[in-house]
From TrEMBL:
Name of the protein described by the UniProt record: RsmB/NOP family class I SAM-dependent RNA methyltransferase
Entry's EC annotation: 2.1.1.-
Protein family according to the UniProt entry: Belongs to the class I-like SAM-binding methyltransferase superfamily. RsmB/NOP family.
Domain of life: Bacteria
SUPFAM superfamilies named in the record: S-adenosyl-L-methionine-dependent methyltransferases (SSF53335)
Length: 441
């Protein structure tokens, strides 16, 4: 396909997402199925246009004078492919599959129009109703912080030390220019996509099929590490879902002790069985939501709560979720977070830890939930994350951890007090919130 056809396809898919309220991944998949002639390069180039247009929908709309799909796709093409108006027009000239684009003057003005005159929420590419929350949380840098959630993300992987060393995985992935991601002993990073390129499909690599590594954002790896999981412990992963954190915790325990993986939703839990088998995790017991967990009460060294949340920290990867989030959804998530913390707390043994994690940056889902929880009965005490970080990195035996690239985040952890907020701008990860609380002995 030529550029004109790719632009038209991206516009068609965006229209489908908007009119039928469809998740972006599903809309792209369906388009691929009904347009078999499109090759894999076409599909990824179209995917980049759709994702970029969704990520920067408001600022592109402002700079183009319209947020209609053809305007924001033209903006995504110009910015993503480094084309000026002339190059874009020339590339689609005479192409019968090309769409109607905004007028030449608008296209010509686009690169210079930086939206500096626009309200903060437009420059930040977020819905208006969330602007106050970002401002309260990030202060002067709130627009920058929010805008960084619209960048293309890297592909992050975790070396599964139950099966392969960090070095071995790096070597296996060297054709893809994989590098240590720097914050954790296990993290590996493949840089964000450039232009109309694509990330390698690492899931068909022999190393992946043999369980040497998992796809996992480094923020998620760091959250698991900061739980303080150590060999021999008894851990309840109370919101295990498909098991991303369970697998990381299992490796941190070096296949000793016991992890109880539980989730309130059987369907979400289902993929965990295959993943555990591939990763060689032998210390995990999966609990169906119908199982009775009574025997675990007051017996766990760590209860890990990877709470259901709005996912604002993952907007780089799921930009459609940004525009779908409503105040009503947020209220629902908050109620679930309060419930899940209350339910999970009873399994922590005296002297044990309750770890609360979300992949959201919103204070409503993070610090305010901790305050609400601590205000209730239970007597939990939040721990200083700087100390936990130092211990986790010391036991992680990582040559990279503590090195220069890590210094900035190290400082962040030391100054975090009792809660760590990771963001694409601060830590180069997805947005994650971590708070570790102890039940007094
Ligand atoms: C953020 S996801 C978990 C992701 C998973 N830990 C991972 O790393 O792949 C949150 C999970 O919480 C589960 N959940 C929501 N409310 C729950 C409850 N009351 N009890 C247990 N699990 C719950 C959801 O089904 C969902 O799978």
């Amino acid at each position: 396909m030529r550029l004109g056809g790719r632009l038209s396809a991206a516009i068609e898919i965006l229209t489908d997402i908007e009119t039928r309220h469809r998740p972006v991944a599903q809309a792209l998949k369906d388009w691929g199925i009904s347009h078999r002639f499109a090759g894999s390069k076409d599909r990824s180039a179209i995917g980049n246009l759709v994702y970029d247009a969704l990520r920067r929908k408001r600022s592109y709309g402002h700079r183009m004078g319209s947020d209609a799909p053809n305007a924001i796709v033209a903006a995504a093409a110009m910015e993503g492919l480094s084309l000026d108006a002339e190059a874009l027009t020339k590339a689609i000239d005479g192409d019968k599959f090309a769409p109607d684009l905004p007028d030449p003057e608008t296209l010509r003005a686009f690169p210079e129009h930086r939206a500096l005159d626009a309200p903060g929420a437009v420059r930040a590419d977020i819905p208006d109703w969330l602007a106050d929350r970002f401002e309260v949380l990030f202060g002067e840098s709130w627009v920058e912080e929010a805008a960084a959630l619209s960048d293309r993300p890297p592909l992050d992987l975790r070396a599964n030390t139950l099966k392969a060393s960090h070095d071995k995985v790096l070597e296996a992935l060297s054709p893809f220019h994989a590098e240590p991601s720097g914050l954790t002993p296990t993290g590996i990073r493949i840089a964000p996509i450039e232009g109309d390129g694509r990330h390698p499909n690492v899931q068909v690599e022999a190393g992946f099929l043999k369980g040497w590594f998992e796809i996992q954002d480094e923020g998620s790896q760091l959250a698991a590490l900061l739980s303080g999981a150590e060999p021999g412990m008894q851990i309840l992963d109370y919101c295990a879902g498909a098991g991303g954190k369970t697998l990381a915790l299992s490796a941190a325990l070096e296949n000793t002790g016991q992890i109880h993986a539980y989730d309130g939703d059987r369907q979400r839990l289902a993929p965990i069985y295959d993943r555990l088998a591939r990763a060689g995790c032998r210390n995990v017991q999966v609990h169906d939501p119908r199982d009775e967990l009574a025997e675990l009460e007051a017996a766990m060294d760590i209860v890990f709560v990877d709470a259901p949340c709005s996912g604002t920290g993952t907007w780089r990867r799921r930009p459609d979720a940004k525009w779908r989030l409503s105040e009503a959804n947020l209220e629902k998530r908050i109620a679930e977070q309060d419930a899940v913390l209350d339910q999970a707390a009873r399994y922590v043994k005296p002297g044990g830890r309750l770890v609360y994690v979300t992949c959201s940056v919103l204070p409503d889902e993070n610090a305010e939930r901790i305050e609400a929880f601590l205000g209730g009965a239970g007597g939990f005490v939040p721990l200083d994350l700087g100390g936990i970080w130092e211990r986790a990195m010391a036991t992680g035996a990582s040559p990279e951890a503590g090195a220069e690239g890590n210094a900035e985040v190290h400082r962040l952890a030391l100054s975090a007090g009792t809660a760590l907020m990771m963001t694409p701008l601060k830590t180069g990860t997805d947005g994650f919130f971590v708070c570790v609380m102890e039940r007094p002995a």
